[in-house]
Structures are given as structure tokens and as C-alpha cells.
Amino acid sequence: MKLPPVRVHENLHVILWLFKDLSWLMEYKLLGLVMVLPTVLVAVLIAWESRRDRSELFHACAVILWILANSTWMIEDFFFNAQGHAIAQAFFLSGLALLAIYYTVFWPLERKKVQDGSPSAP
Questions:
Q1: CA atoms within 13 A on the CB side of 87
Q2: Is residue 121 part of a domain?
Q3: What is the tens place of the pLDDT at every residue in 70-86?
Q4: How far apart are CA 95 and CA 40, in angstroms?
């Protein structure tokens, strides 16, 4: 069974994210910092691959914001004595806002089109 490329990238993404968070937990600062870039880049790749499906794209972008929040939080813990979580909070809240926009604006429109028998929106 061959997995679609986006699924392969999602599986890789989980591995990268786990290594990043394990590095954070174990306080391996260098490895944690190094793992931020590939974790974010694979998330961006997943979003790019999902661009034709509005729901998948919104969720993938929320994941990017989640990783940025998580990574910012890790860096603050490593180097700033867990002070100044405002940047991490901003990323987390931006991800929630993005999903709120999707579920309050786009999702109802897509459901209405399906109920009306129209082709689904991209």
C-alpha cells in the first residue's frame, strides 16, 4: 500500500516534532534548537501540499502556528528562564483564531454547498 505524499510527510513530521519536544524535556538545548527548523519546514511543506483543500490548509496552517508557539516556548524556557511567554501565546492564539475563522465562516458555507447539491468548495 502506497501512502500519499502528504501522509508520508505527516508521519515524518511527527518524528521530527517528537525529537524536538524530547530534546526540550531532556534539556538538550542544541538538539532542540536544531530540530525547530526541520519541524517547521515539514509543516510548511504539508500546508503547501494541502493548499487545494481549504479545510486541510487551515488546519495545516494552525499546526505551523502551534509548532512556532511550542518552539518559542521551548526557547524561552532554555534561554530566558521561562519569562516572556507572550510570543508563544500570540502564536497559540493566532492558531486558534485561524481555526475559529474556518469553523465560523468557511465550514458553514461548505456545508451549505454540500446540502444544496453544489460542488464542494476548494
A1: 14
A2: no
A3: 999 999 999 998 787 89
A4: 14
Q: How many structural domains comprise the chain? A: 1
- Grid coordinates representing 20 are 524536538
| Segments forming the whole domain that contains residue 72 | 5-115
In a domain, 102, yes or no: yes
For 31-61, letters b (16+ CB in 10 Å) and e give: ebbebbebbbebbebbbebbeeebbebbbbb
Q: How far is CA 2 from CA 7, 22, 101, in A?
A: 10, 30, 34
Q: What is the DSSP letter of 37?
A: H
Threshold 0.70, pTM exceeds:
yes
Q: What is the pLDDT of residues 7-22, one digit of tens each?
A: 889 999 999 999 999 9
In a domain, 60, yes or no: yes
